[in-house]
Design goal:
single chain, 5 helices, 54% helix
């Protein structure tokens, strides 16, 4: 089940001490996408492809598996490797 508060916390942890713009640029996603996640504006999770991009540049031990779990995807769902 998608948990917007958990996703917000995970993205903030993944961002670390970088500005939102810098983190978004490093991830290759728009700052507005990250902002919507952080501010719990979305009613559904980001796509696995987006979560993979975020995970590839995450700090503070935020992993793709953590992001996928927070997004409500089950391990049996098709995850990007």
């Amino acid at each position: 089940m998608f948990n917007s508060t958990l996703m917000s916390d995970l993205i903030k942890q993944a961002q670390g001490n970088r500005s939102l713009s810098k983190f978004a640029r490093e991830c290759g996603v728009s700052p507005s996408t990250l902002s919507r996640i952080i501010n719990c504006v979305n009613n559904q999770s980001a796509k696995p492809e987006t979560l993979k991009k975020i995970a590839n540049h995450a700090q503070n031990n935020v992993t793709y598996d953590l992001l996928m779990a927070g997004a409500g995807f089950k391990p049996s769902d098709k995850w990007i490797q």
